[in-house]
Specification:
Number of domains: 1
Oligomer: single chain
Distance between the termini: 60 Å
Strand content: under 5%
Strand order of the largest sheet: 1-4-5
Order of helices and strands: EHHHEHHHHEHHHHEEHHHHHHHH
Low-confidence stretches: none
Radius of gyration: 22 Å
Helix content: 55-70%
Length: 421
Amino acid sequence: MLFESFSEAQTTLLLCVFIVAFILGAVVNKTNFCTMGAVSDMVNMGDYSRFRSWLLAIAVAITGMLLMEYLGIVNADASFPPYRASQLVWAENILGGFLFGVGMTLASGCGNKTLIRIGGGNIKSIIVFIIIAFIAYFMITPFPGTDKTLFSILFYDWIRPLAISLQTQQDLGSIINRDNPLFTRLIIGGAIVFLMLLYILRGKGFRNNPEHWFAGLVVGLAVLAGWYLSNSIMIDLVDEGEQYTLAEYYENWDMVSDSEAGKPAQGAALSSQSFTFINPMGQTLGYVSSGLPSSKLTFGIVSVFGVILGSLFWALVTKSFRIEWFFNSKDFITHVIGAVLMGFGGVLAMGCTIGQGITGFSTLAVGSIFAFIAIVFGSALTMKIQYYQMLYEDASFFAVLITALVELKLLPAGMRKLEAL
C-alpha cells in the first residue's frame, strides 16, 4: 500500500491496526480464548483443548510468516521489539517469562486477557492494567531528572552480563545455517508447524469444538495482519523515485520532509511489528500522561484501545457486561502482586503470551521460545502450589513446592511431600 505522505501512511496504519485489534478483542471475548485458562485447564482438569487453540494460533502465525518472508512481503529482522537480535538475552527471557507466568496466574489473566476483562466491565483488571503500565513504562523510561530506569537499577548489572552475543541473528534459521537462513527457516518452521498440527488434531475435545478452531485461527491471523500492515504500508516519493517504509522515512526525515510537523516521538515504534501488550501498556501511560499528543500515538497504543473496545462491543451486544470488584483484601493483594510480576516479567521477557508466545514465536527466535516455555512453566507451577496450599493450609512452602514439582514430573515421585486428596 503506497501513500504520497507520511501522515496518510501512518494514519492508515493506525486505523487498520485498530480495526484488527477491535476484531481480536471481540473474538477473544466471544470464544474465551485465554492462555492462562489454557494452562489452568491442563493442570487442573487434564483438558488440553484451549492449549491446542493457543498452539493453533502459533502454527498459523509461523506458517504465515514463513510464506510472507519467502515472498518478500515481511522482514522481521529489524522488528520492534528486536526478536531476532544477535544478543540472546536468555536469562531475561527465562526469568521474565517465569515471572510473567506467575503474575498472570495471580492476576487472573495475561496482558491480553486483562484488556478483554476491562472491556467486559472488570474493574479489578483496570487496577492490574495501571500497575503493569507504570512498571512497564519506568522499566525502559528514566525517572524524571535522572538517567535511571527500573531495569538499570534492579536488573542490568547482574542479568545483562549473562547475555550471549551470537555471530548471527538468534532465529533458528540463522543459527543453524547462517548462509541461507530463509530456506532453513522454511524447513525448520515447516517441521514445527507439522508437529504442532499433529498434536493439535489428536485432541477430540478440540476437534469437536468450533470455537477453539475459530479462536486459534483468528488470533493467529490477527498477528499476521499486524506483521503485514507494519511492513506493507509505505510512502512513495514520486519526485525522488523512492519508496520508504515508515521507519525508513523517519530515519531520513531531514532529507525527505520539509518540516518537523507530524514527526513521531520515536522511530523504533514504526518498525516491523505485530501484537504484544505489556510494553504498549507502558506506552499508553506515557501517551495519556503527556496529554495525548499525536506524536506519541503508536501501533501498540492503538492495539490496546482496539482490544478493549472490541471486547466492550461484544460484552454489550451479548449483554454479558458485568461490573466486577475484588472479593476481599486478599484478592486485592493477590492481583496487585500478580500485576507487579507481569509488569517486570513482561518487559524482561520482551513480551507476553501473545507478544512472545505467538508474535515472537512466529519469527522462530530462540529467545521467544524460551519465554514461551517459561511462561507456561511459571503459570503451571503457581497453579499447583495454589492447589496444595488450599489442601494443606499448615504445610510449609518447601513441602508444597516440592510436591508441585513432582506433580509436574520435574522431580521423582519418591520426593513427594504431600498426598493429593
